[in-house]
Specification:
three-stranded antiparallel beta sheet; single chain; disulfide bond; signal; Defensin A-like; about 60 residues; alpha+beta
Length: about 60
């Protein structure tokens, strides 16, 4: 029974830790994103740690 509970807790930790590492598309960045520094500034203004441009499509993604 204890092993079952331990495995359940480990699965929950794994799920929630990956959620914390997810990127969020910037809500305020306008246009195509080609320079990480511009995206980073917008993301910081939105309250995120940092930001970066996507490799494909030129979107700005903020790091949670």
């Amino acid at each position: 029974m204890k092993l079952h509970t331990l495995l359940y807790v480990l699965v929950l930790l794994a799920v929630f830790s990956t959620m914390a590492l997810a990127d969020v598309k910037s809500g305020n960045f306008k246009g195509s994103c080609y320079h990480d520094s511009n995206c980073n500034g917008v993301c910081r203004d939105e309250g995120y740690k940092s930001g970066h441009c996507s490799r494909w499509g030129g979107a700005c993604w903020c790091d949670t």
